[in-house]
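Input for the complex:
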Amino acid sequence: MNPMVKPDGKKADAQPDVNAAALKAPRSSANVDENRPAPEVVGTDTLYLGIDLGTSRSAVAANNGTRDMIASVVGWPKDNIAAKVLGQRVVLGEAVLKNRLALDVVWPLADGNLIYSDLSGEDRERARSAALELLIQLRKMGRPTIGQAIYAVIGAPAEATKENKQSIIEIARDAGIDSVMVVSEPFAVAYAVDALEDAIVIDIGAGTIDLCRMSGTLPTPEDQVTVFKAGNFIDEEIAKRVRKKFPDAQFSINMIKTAKERFSAVVDQSERALVTFPVDGVPTELDITDEVHQAVSLIIPELVEGIRKLVSTFDPEFQDRIRSRVYVSGGGSQIYGLRDAIKNGMKKIGGGNVFLVEEPAFSGANGALKLAQEMPVRYWEKLRDL
Amino acid sequence: MIAGTPTPAGSNEARASALMAEAGELRPVADLGSRGIRQVRLLSQSQFETAVRDAVAREVLAYLGDLDLPRERRQILEERALARLSGDPVERPLPAEVAAPATLASADPSFDFVAMERRLVDEIGRLVAQNWRAELETTRDTHSTQITGLERRIDSLMRALDQVERLMDRVPAGGIAAPIGSNIPPSTGPLSGIKNELLEQLFQANLALRELEAGEELSNGDGPEPERR
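Predicted:
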């Protein structure tokens, strides 16, 4: 999906001054005035954040107990009337989806990466502003107190490029986070569940499915596989099938996404997926069970192939062990019956055991927070001062 | 398996051999092996007879209370059975009623001694099998109970562990009274070594990322020094 395309198909309007607005937003003392020296960081006055920056949703976990989630979408009112009605200069999260007709909508991430580093000109500025607004919001959701230093570990896709990781660091700093580390998202999950050796972690998101092999060291590119058939792919496949079956039905991709989350089923079809979409303007109940089932099942072969690739290139002595410790996390892992479907798929490659992690939607953020808290303070301080 | 030797026809041993030949089943050793039997114990005929006598003595003691016998005869039977089992046989004669089969056998040549012994062996076999089945059922029940108990215990421990982990996530590091933001004490669990190594590696990777960025900025002429906060 091109995040720069407005709902009405027109080119984006003049760029809102989000950087100025961002500076007005509540920030840590370190970022209010760039000329001030870095704050004296005292061990007891630090807010640690774990952030899972996702294509569809982003999650934050903080050491003060906060757990929160937001749709990774930003919108600016199209005109003064819309701004007056909405009462906000910029809108974030689910509110954007509800009011999208009055907003210029930007999804700052695609396939798990910040898109602005691949763009140029006005599009780049707009996408960067959206990313900044999102990071500022995530920081606020961590409920920092005035003067508190903020150290954050941010999860990036397994195959994020060096440039993308640098973009995340840059944006996070601008968003008022004092010290930042970027970590591979599945590694954060592995850290959360202590699956640090002889295990495979699968993080199912909207843009990507990240598979990561853990062997007691920081994963290298050879330890990671990214599959680009994830939640968004499933949404499009469902839409394609529903459009074919009910040519007169009117629906948006967001309506499909909601339906999928309600009815996702890989194995069990006992419950029918009934949705009410308008047909020629008349709300009509439609049965899309088969369409959801078929679309969701499409991700299994590539997932299993990813597992096979990671297993087959592992030390043969430990291949059985790694196959028996496959952890599935991320929002997509909540698809009913997914665990059994992967387990069945793995029979072709010698079988194995699959575990669903607890709090799958927060597992990346929880792992990132755990890393942030266990990281020695001297490391944080060193990175802060660079 | 019983290995016997040829005995004179008509003697007790000959009758016992005939009984064994009819009651038992002749099988090649290889056939037993294919059925999973790895070892066989060889018993001589006398050992087998001793074992049968002992079994009979045990059964007599077990069922003596149910028999309608005069006190004196009951006592004699009990003494003989006990003596048999203690390995100190006494030569006290059996009462006439109890010794009747032998008397009958010697008195009546038509008495089917072989059939009577077979019935006796069958009955003993049935009792032994019953006893084994009961014991097997008891063992199975006990194991099943123990496994169910262990599963319940594992479940409750897992739940407790989950609760502790959730609480640990929510409690500020350093304990309830510690201010928010204090650092978690160094891990001392079995993964602590790996974790420390991973944290070091993660820091180094992020440091390299910063240095790379700073180097690029320099080469792009973005400024004389890397950006400092």
